């Protein structure tokens, strides 16, 4: 077996032994990460039904990408424990959020006080976020994850996106940073949490400095980043996958999970926005930030629109699944509203989302419109079956290759 797609600690055999390239992507969204937590728990339960109680999401995907809160979830799903199994099962993510988010985003002040505090600096000091992540991940590095990952951040010193990708660390060893530093950085939403800086060293001892903020500045929906990282890797390297076939879109099996949006008509209007100054663009009466909503939701929907159109054109819609809630109430949409009531409502929103029809964004209206009769839950069951079949196929072909090599060695001797 020869493949850079095979990671030393991974249970995921490389795509060379199967038929698909499997991708999982998780959007950014702060406290709204509870929504993908519910979706991922359902998916992992389906995989357990197929392959046993020890099945974990990290066993099935060639790459998992996450931005901001999605980056944190990515790390939780892929960081190894002492037995070289995922540190968190998907069902544990919800409890982590419920326990820690009220301490990360303490709800101590009203809107006026928040505005005054925000003029002075970030709304939150980020200490509990940093401490809780470091406690869980300890010294785990990017290269230790149980499958390939891609976590976007944005460097405010170079004004360039910085993508921490498993595929980069072999040639750019300074990118093999601590997973805790990467998670803190990708979650550092401007004005909400302080930027995160750290230093790493390459194999020659040269120091590299990072000055990072939230990956949502560059890519709140990292699905294309995940697919691009694999494509670049396959183009540059010999990975045991024939180049033309490996880069065909029909080989991709993609699940992209959003953190919810509020697309209620009339939320912002020209008549209101024309009166806004700096504070108006950053704060609205319901506690949301119009500027943050505009930048993150716009880029997020563009990625979904592009991939939906592409997979439909190639008649492979059944290999791309976008699960997103676009009808969140305005009270649920803030990134930092970590009250018990709000978290309970977000969990309910995730559960309702499973029962909704599979939908895609219509850029003309901005709304999500159903395009399949089946629900997201049914679609996830179908994807779980495809993931399970792909894993079984790879294991069978891998074993056949081992047996063939043994036979060849025996014949030579």
UniProtKB/TrEMBL annotation:
<dbReference type="GO" id="GO:0016042">
    <property type="term" value="P:lipid catabolic process"/>
</dbReference>
<keyword id="KW-0442">Lipid degradation</keyword>
<feature type="short sequence motif" description="GXSXG">
    <location>
        <begin position="66"/>
        <end position="70"/>
    </location>
</feature>
<comment type="function">
    <text>Lipolytic acyl hydrolase (LAH).</text>
</comment>
<dbReference type="InterPro" id="IPR016035">
    <property type="entry name" value="Acyl_Trfase/lysoPLipase"/>
</dbReference>
<feature type="short sequence motif" description="DGA/G">
    <location>
        <begin position="214"/>
        <end position="216"/>
    </location>
</feature>
<feature type="domain" description="PNPLA">
    <location>
        <begin position="24"/>
        <end position="227"/>
    </location>
</feature>
<dbReference type="InterPro" id="IPR002641">
    <property type="entry name" value="PNPLA_dom"/>
</dbReference>
<protein>
    <recommendedName>
        <fullName>Patatin</fullName>
        <ecNumber>3.1.1.-</ecNumber>
    </recommendedName>
</protein>
<dbReference type="Pfam" id="PF01734">
    <property type="entry name" value="Patatin"/>
</dbReference>
<feature type="active site" description="Proton acceptor">
    <location>
        <position position="214"/>
    </location>
</feature>
<keyword id="KW-0378">Hydrolase</keyword>
<keyword id="KW-0611">Plant defense</keyword>
<dbReference type="GO" id="GO:0006952">
    <property type="term" value="P:defense response"/>
</dbReference>
<dbReference type="GO" id="GO:0004620">
    <property type="term" value="F:phospholipase activity"/>
</dbReference>
<feature type="short sequence motif" description="GXGXXG">
    <location>
        <begin position="28"/>
        <end position="33"/>
    </location>
</feature>
<feature type="active site" description="Nucleophile">
    <location>
        <position position="68"/>
    </location>
</feature>
<keyword id="KW-0443">Lipid metabolism</keyword>
<comment type="similarity">
    <text>Belongs to the patatin family.</text>
</comment>
<dbReference type="GO" id="GO:0047372">
    <property type="term" value="F:monoacylglycerol lipase activity"/>
</dbReference>
């Amino acid at each position: 077996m020869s493949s850079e797609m095979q990671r030393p600690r991974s249970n995921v055999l490389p795509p060379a032994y199967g038929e698909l390239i499997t991708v999982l992507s998780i959007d950014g969204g702060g406290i709204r990460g509870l929504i993908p937590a519910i979706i991922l728990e359902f998916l992992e339960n389906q995989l357990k039904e197929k392959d046993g109680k020890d099945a974990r999401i990290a066993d099935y995907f060639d790459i998992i990408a996450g931005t901001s809160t999605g980056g944190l979830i990515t790390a939780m799903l892929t960081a190894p424990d002492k037995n070289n199994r995922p540190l968190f099962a998907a069902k544990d993510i919800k409890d982590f959020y419920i326990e820690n988010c009220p301490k990360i985003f303490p709800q101590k002040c009203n809107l006026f006080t928040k505005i005054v505090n925000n003029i002075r600096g970030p709304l939150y000091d980020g200490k509990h976020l940093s401490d809780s992540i470091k406690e869980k991940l300890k010294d785990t590095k990017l290269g230790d994850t149980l499958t390939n990952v891609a976590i976007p951040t944005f460097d405010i010193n170079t004004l360039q996106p910085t993508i921490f990708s498993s595929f980069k660390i072999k040639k750019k060893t300074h990118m093999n940073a601590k997973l805790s530093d990467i998670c803190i950085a990708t979650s550092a939403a401007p004005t909400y949490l302080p930027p995160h800086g750290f230093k790493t060293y390459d194999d020659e001892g040269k120091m590299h400095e990072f000055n990072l903020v939230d990956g949502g500045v560059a890519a709140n929906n990292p699905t294309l980043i995940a697919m691009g990282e694999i494509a670049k890797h396959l183009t540059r390297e010999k990975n045991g996958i024939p180049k033309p076939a490996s880069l065909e879109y029909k080989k991709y099996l993609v699940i992209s999970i959003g953190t919810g949006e509020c697309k209620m008509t009339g939320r912002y209007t020209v008549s209101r926005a024309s009166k806004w100054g700096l504070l108006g663009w950053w704060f609205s009466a319901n506690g949301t930030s119009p500027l943050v909503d505009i930048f993150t939701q716009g880029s997020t929907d563009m990625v979904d629109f592009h991939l939906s159109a592409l997979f439909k054109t190639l008649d492979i819609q059944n290999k791309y699944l976008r699960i997103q809630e676009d009808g969140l109430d305005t009270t649920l949409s803030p990134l930092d509203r970590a009250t018990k009531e709000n978290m309970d409502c977000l969990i309910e929103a995730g559960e309702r989302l499973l029962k909704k029809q599979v939908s895609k964004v219509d850029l003309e209206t901005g709304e999500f419109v159903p395009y399949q009769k089946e629900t997201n839950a049914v679609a996830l069951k179908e994807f779980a079956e495809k993931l399970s079949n792909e894993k079984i196929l790879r294991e069978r072909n891998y074993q056949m290759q081992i047996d063939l090599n043994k036979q060849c060695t025996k014949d030579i001797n």
